[in-house]
Amino acid sequence: MSAPFTSPNIEGKPIVPRWQRPPTTQADLDWATLHTIDLSLLDSPDEDVVRDLVELTKTAIREDGFLFLTNYGVSLEQLQRQFDLAQYLHRNISDDDKQRLLWDPSSGRFAGWKQQWGWKREAGEFDGIEQFNFYRGEIENRDRVPDCILPFMDEITAFCDYLTGSVNRRLLTLLSRVLELPDNYLWDHIQSQDSTVGDGYFRHALFHPLLGEDKKRRKSVRMYGHTDYGTTTLLFSVPVTALHIWSKQDRWQPVKYNPGALVVNLGEALEIVSGGHFKATKHKVTDTPADQEEFERLSLVLFNASKGDMRLMPAVESPLLQREGFVMEQGVFQQYKKLIDAGIPVPTNKQWREIQISTRSQVAPEEKSGGVQEIGGVKFGVDEFLGVKVLLPV
């Protein structure tokens, strides 16, 4: 039986104001329909219950690549505390720390502070997105985090440890079973495990309202369509509607608020390892509905990464792949397969992540190297990295 999260003691620490959840939208939107996975059922002694859970997981990741995860071991009050801390960081980080810890995209990593002026180190046009990203080795390094959050780093570290070592590990167990492989296959062979967040990172993000000319200039898009590089992304559902997924209906659909739930999307590493059976989820962040446009959107995200030195290949030992073959839909696996068939080494995971972060992170579709192309009636932004073509719907 999986143990629930245990929060560190908060006695003697500075007082942290409580984060007040914004009201949910009353707009009638074209909501995405996502499956809900009750992670606690993985511990059921009833084999039929576990078997049904695996089948539901298989359906969810084949249809959407996105799913809701519930009953994963963190209480609503424990989650509230983490949002309180994220708000505290954004309200109290000093200007000196913003400069000292300013993100350097040339490093190929998101580590540190992102200012609300674009996705480069130098200030560009206003996008209203501030972030602090805690990275491997730096989450325990007191010189690499803002001074204001130092008294609470035991809580943040414990939270990340639990999300990575318990929640994500159990989720990877489910996904390994979908591939009909041993429970620890994806955890042991694909998931980066060095230190607290491995090669991944934990993000405190704050989206300020985007209004007037800024809203027009960005065409109501906060973050352009993309997929994540790693294994899984664990995003805590928030009341302010902005996250959209590219659904099986071939259109962008918003994700509805699900209190306490984790919104999980699968990364490119799992799409490749699964031979295309798992979909790396295409998603973007847009402007909010009109009745929420004055509210800030506070977000907590854990990005779980695949081992940096690996050159990902499909797990051909999977009975599922042996029985059903590859799924050759448009995506990064299809592009990797072209290199594999030509005998060309695919990029290492580290190379794949870092080339995109350091060169064209969050570039508008029309500014990509291949511009915008229409395929089958759908417009895609087209780019290429290390011989791998990347197409993402506009």
UniProtKB/TrEMBL annotation:
Record-annotated Isopenicillin N synthase-like Fe(2+) 2OG dioxygenase domain positions: 215-303
Superkingdom, taxonomy of origin: Eukaryota
Start and end residues of each Non-haem dioxygenase N-terminal domain: 36-137
InterPro entries the record matches: DIOX_N, IPNS-like_FE2OG_OXY, IPNS-like_sf, Iron_ascorbate_oxido_reductase
One Pfam entry name: 2OG-FeII_Oxy
Signal peptide: none
PANTHER family linked: 2-OXOGLUTARATE (2OG) AND FE(II)-DEPENDENT OXYGENASE SUPERFAMILY PROTEIN-RELATED
Family: Belongs to the iron/ascorbate-dependent oxidoreductase family.
Protein name: Fe2OG dioxygenase domain-containing protein
Organism: Baudoinia panamericana (strain UAMH 10762)
Lineage, opening ranks: Eukaryota, Fungi, Dikarya, Ascomycota, Pezizomycotina
